[in-house]
Write a structure and sequence with these properties.
Distance between the termini of chain C: 60 Å
Largest interface: A-B, 58 and 44 residues
Radius of gyration of chain B: 19 Å
Low-confidence stretches of chain B: none
Order of helices and strands of chain B: EHEHEHEHEHEEEEHHHEE
Radius of gyration of chain C: 20 Å
Number of strands of chain B: 11
Number of helices of chain B: 8
Largest sheet of chain B: 5 strands, parallel
Number of helices of chain C: 13
Mean pLDDT of chain B: 83
Number of strands of chain C: 16
Structural class of chain B: alpha/beta
Strand content of chain B: 15-25%
Low-confidence stretches of chain C: 1-20
Largest sheet of chain C: 9 strands, mixed
Oligomer: heterotrimer
Structural class of chain C: alpha/beta
Mean pLDDT of chain C: 87
Helix content of chain C: 25-40%
Chain lengths: ~450, ~220, ~350
Amino acid sequence: MSATVNVSGSIRRRLLLQLMGSAALLAALLFLAVLGFVRNVAEESHDRILLASATSILESVSVQSGEITADIPYAALSMLGNVSDDRVFYQIATPAGVLTGYADLPVAGPPVQPGQPLFQTARYKAESIRSVTLFRRLSVEGAPVAVQVSVAQTRSGQAALLAQLSWSALYLGVGFFVLASGLAFWSTQSSITPLRSLTEAISRRGPKDLRPVSRPVPSEMSPLVSSLNSFISRLQTSLARSEDFIAEAAHRVRTPLATVRAQAEVTLMRIENENKRTSLREMIRAIDESSRAAGQLLDHAMVSFRTDSLELEDVNLTELARDLAERLQPVAELKDMSLHFEGQETIRLPGDGILLQNAVRNILDNAIKYSGRDSEVWIRAVCRGGCACIEIEDQAGGFKCEDTEALTRRFVRGANARNTTGSGLGLTIAREVAEAHGGKLIIENSQTGTGACVTLCFPLH
Amino acid sequence: MRFLLVEDNESLANAIQARLRLDGHAVDHAPDAGTACAFSDTTDYDLILLDIMLPDGDGRSFLKNHRDNRKETPVIVLTARSEVSDRVGMLDLGADDYLTKPFDFSELEARCRAVLRRRGGGSSNLRRFANLLFDPMAGTLSSGGKTISLRNRELRLLEVFLNAPDRIFSKSKLVDRLFSYDEEVSENAIEVYVARLRKHLAGSGAEITTVRGLGYRLSLE
Amino acid sequence: MRNALLSLALTFLTLATLAAAGFEVEERHWIGPQDGTPLRIISTTDTAILAPLIESFLQKHPGTAVDYTVANSSEVMKAVLKGEEQFDVALSSAMDLQTKLANDGFTRPHQSAFTALIPDWGKWRDHVFAFSLEPASVVVSAAGFRGRDIPRTRQDLIALMRAEPERFLGKVGTYDVALSGLGYLFATQDARTSETYWRLMEVTGSLEPVLYCCSASMIEDIAVGEILIAYNVLGSYARARQDLKDKIIVIDPEDYTHLMMRSAVLLSGGGQPDLAQRFVDHLAYAAWSQPPGAEYPFHPPSAEFIGAANSKRLIQLGPGLLVYQDAEKRRRFMAEWFNAIRKQ
């Protein structure tokens, strides 16, 4: 009954991927933003220290006895050492030339205004440096002289710090992503929960449970559920209709056949002409054959219908076999045959009682039909090797080197069936019922060799 | 025996009636459930043959009604539907047996006999001929203080003869009554059963005589 | 091979070849096999002191030799700056000069499991590696102070010299900051630390002090009674002179005692960078492993020196040391110092 479903993607996976993709994007943005911010802050704080250093040096520049001199405070440079182990360069210059420090330090022109620092990044002594330049006017013997102070520091410490902060930013980003992914997983899970519980509720149903779905569902699922409900109701109608159709078809076919048969029998009893009687017999036989064929076709349709949606209930197999034996006793007696039931223990198994009865009935019908007068048929309900078995043995000669498997195919009849009415569906029905119950149909010659032994086996769990 | 046939199909009903009467049974025909109720209220029947599909209501309701009113008459349901779906319901509703259309009248008779035997009824149907006392339900034949059980075909052969004493039955006709139509039987098989029956009838004042070229008949000695 | 190493001879090279270098060389030795690959070291440390360490290095690296040049710290700086002769390693007690070399790009960085032994305060930028911790001490003559109170602080010294100026006239010695880089480092650190220093220098200046180039000479002069007080002498040198134990008294002033770190830098112009790294590793291991190697010539650098409650003050490696290397600053400091010390 399990039909393959054309699966294309998964809502959960798609949702999860989308959420995780968004999380990854946000994490990347977060990483870049933090990195940018950190870089800014690091640069700014570095600039601030450089500025403090330059300012303190500039303040130490003074005019003594008409000459500009500088007394660099110890702290001016040592403060730079507190931040990082970076190389420090400085320069104090006047328009007349470099007063002290690194003469070749690349310094931009004088800043626009006194007190306005000019920051720049340059290369010096094979390293990238960050420098600040400040200037101040001093009066030397009445003439203003612009004193310019530059302080520079290499940036490897800053780079190391930035690298470290980048890692932190990366961890932050990754942490954010992991957390967001966890939440995405959780929210995906919870958002498909209604779908899953609906699925569970529906798949838990028995095959005959065609009630509409009444459990509350989220609004997004209501169109699906209402379509499902309408589909269920159509299915219900259609099933009822096909059951009715089978019944009606049977009725329509069998009633006129019954009329014709009865009439034919009445006529046969009344007339004496042997030729006409022979024709009438042929007619009755044809009617029997077609009615039996129709019956088995309809039975087979019904069996297929029921096995498709097998509904299991507790079946007493012994009782079932006993009932059938009792019911077919008159038919057997008509042929002066003996029908024996054997079965002591009560064998129970989960199954469809009607189907099981039909299967046994078909085998039993065959046995009675092919048996001659004064012969015997046994029906046994036994437990054997972990299987519940119903065994029907006759004395009708058995199968002669035939492919016993082929007998259970549709419309195949045994070699000894030529003179007997039947459609050949009986064993097919029996086999299908057995297989629907996880069992099998075994066809073999009986141990005495005088007949056939057909066994329905159902594994017991 | 007295049958009530509840069957809406007129021609089928006629055919069944004709066939049953040939066997010497009395048959009343009710075309619908209402008539059937009326009949069964006024007359005692040995058996009711009930078609399950009736125009004025499902035969099931008649059956249920019949059983609810604690009527004892056994009911054999005639169904044209698929056995698989109907059978269990029939028996649950209180039908004594069921038969799918079309059916063999020998089988119908056999089933009726089985039902009546189960019910313990039908003793009123004892038949007498010469010194013979024949109980078709029990399938016993008594004469001169001893009772024997007849096998099915012997019983039916005796029934055929008892239904029309002194009438000549050809071998062919007897074959039709004793064997089903799908059995290939030679007419000589009849001789075996006639011989067995003659043995049972010995000393009862009744005998089966051979009418050369025509067949057999039952007559008083 | 081992015998050959043990029988190492200190080979004096002629001073004539040294003069051509453009800086003043005190001594120069070739240690190890004559045909060995030479590791060129320029150092302020006397050969005799480091010889055991060098020998153990050579034992570990057969086929190498050490070309060991001794100069005072200013000359070491000059030698590196001029670059006429390439050296692989510079060892110096003048931390400010080593720092300046590193800052101005004359050195190369190095990192290894051995440099990791050095505490953070003993390294700068993985360029400067300290391998000793030595106090700037006061050494006095044992004979001159027999029966008298030993000065414990700079205040004691000032009071002592003021009380008996005639006794100490011409009997006080200290580094000539113009000649000795280490002397300049001690002087500038003193000046930075306390105003007492200038008062001490002024008092000293009034006593016609003797100025020295090196600790060794000061210790010798104390021992023979030439001078009574030597200020800012390397305590490690003084204490190492077991032969003078009874003639000198080494005092670590209780108000504060500066701790200098002797350090090594790898010079970027050197021809044997790998060997130079291994030598620095060898030094670092000898100095900083616990306990230090048997051949380690100095008092083991100990963490107890560094305690905050201690009077010992570690001279911090770092850009601050560059301040007194500023030409303008140096000019001003020298002027002030000589102004104080040459009153008369």
